[in-house]
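Pasting two entries for a bug report.
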Amino acid sequence: MTEPSGLWTLDFGLGTLAGEQMPEQLPEVRIDNFNEVALGYSQEQAIREARRCRQCKEAPCVSGCPVGIDIPGFVGAMADGNLKRSIAIVKRSNLLPAVCGRVCPQSRQCQARCVLGRKGAPVGIGNLERFIADWETKEGGVKLPAMAPPTGKNVAVVGSGPGGLTVAADCARLGHKVTVFEALHKLGGVLVYGIPEFRLPKAILETEVDVLARMGVEFRTDALIGAIVSVEELRDQFDAVYLGLGAGLPYFLGIPGENLAGVYSANEYLTRSNLMKAYLFPEYDTPIRRGTNVAVVGGGNVAMDSARTAVRLGAEHVFLIYRRSKEEMPARREEIEHAIGEGIDFQLLRNPTRIIGDARGNVAAVEIVKMELGEPDASGRPRPVPVPGSEYTIEVDVVVPAIGNGANPLLIRATPGLELNEWGYIVADPNTGATSMEGVFAGGDIVRGAATVILAMGDGRTASRAIHEYVTTN
């Protein structure tokens, strides 16, 4: 629905997400472009929203932030109109606030613990973080943080995703020389290849990465560690190594027909669109099957990104197939709302059983079985159970499984000294990030399995403290 002001209100039977509603492109407009959907608070809106904060002494919101931002501090400064102090407080803990304000699941973390949320809408902490980061950029450029004198120690960071960038920023601030190795030709990891432009404009990411470069962090792209150089060799060259590889090995459904033309892993589908810029056709002639009827399988943020990308690439009908109900969807509320507003057809309590091809080996349809919810499984959510005899088919020409990722084995196979768990992820001390290899630390998805940007950043914050202690005492 549209408000008289022309704004789109996010409401999924859960109430509005903030006292001050974020202005956005209307659904009928945004489905035809890849521009950012949310347009950001005005300064007046931001200050009004900040003034809703009760400045609780206990500050439960802070305990919900994996990187420990002083939320009452930065919100209180904003409420007083002291925007320079507000951004300075944020950046004590987070040098990527414009990214986090856009993609972090605040409704499940800091905002979930806001006392105002008990009876109404919590303070829009994420929207305020985004505002203050954007304000700094517009008001004359992002300032460099205070930095300690050089220590003479050097740290290697493998992977330029959110965890790796956090380690790089923290270690550089502490006076260490940092070199980041990125396998791809662009920096940002999942932030650049996985998250679409309409949710995280790449210029925003580039601005925040540029701050690290100005801090003296060296970036080496097209550097596939494990192939061009081993972790052991890095350890010989650097005082400490951080592995922030992410979890880049896509999972598939394990059903007949996944080898048909027109089936993409979500990784490939989003990488072709985002990193390889298929969305800018014909300026970039990156091959991607756009499809008329597209089926996306999954209920997380990656599934929402894939479905919403398919709409913008010209699909007439996009089905989002999820085996549980909307209450169990792990995606951010905002992404679910945006997908609904953009006309995505939610096929809930449904699961694919096979993909059907035509005579030429192209996707022609997907067979689906209805599901019902049973007893909770290991995730704590009700286990979906197939309903016998409920199968039906829908005609589609593209299928995108978006059901998670596993540990990429390339570096791991080349590093026998790393202890792994039963799922192939690196075993790391949760309090330090230390691995089984001396001087090697790890965090993020390569340790946790596929998780969130802010959890990877939290792991990076933990590891950077441990790295600092390690290199200054050894």
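Entry 2 (this is the one that rendered wrong in the viewer):
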Amino acid sequence: MLPAVAKMPGTPRKKAVVAGPKATKRTPPQIDRLDQVQQVIVGSLEDDKAEDVVTIDLVGRAAFADRMVIATGLADRQISAMATHLSEKLHEVGIKRVQIEGAGGSDWVLIDAGDIVIHLFKAEARALYGLERMWGTAGLDEPTG
């Protein structure tokens, strides 16, 4: 807190408001915690019979997440169920704000679990978008031909 603000009368909350917002810097999550959440995600997907589950490390390569998990489902209903079960299991391990896009029956469902982003595809959509090619170890420099 600023020295002038500390001497002002009022509650600590009011002093904090007067002092203004603190500059916050995104701190990376604990690796152990990230590994634990990844295990919950992969385990849930495997329990729901997801195919070809792949995890990609994004640390230092993307600002939106530290890891990406990609999996394939056979039908809209299976993909929707995987998303629902995954949301429930993430909630159980303390991740309360899980955002799900496309769960209403599409070829691609995106689940944002904070530091890990999960993509659930039908096989055709997964091949079309090619996220593994884009975010894999070779990245965008990999030839697509």
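Dev reply: Rendering is fixed now. As a check, the viewer should reflect this: The helical segments are 3-6, 12-19, 31-47, 76-92, 123-129, 131-135.
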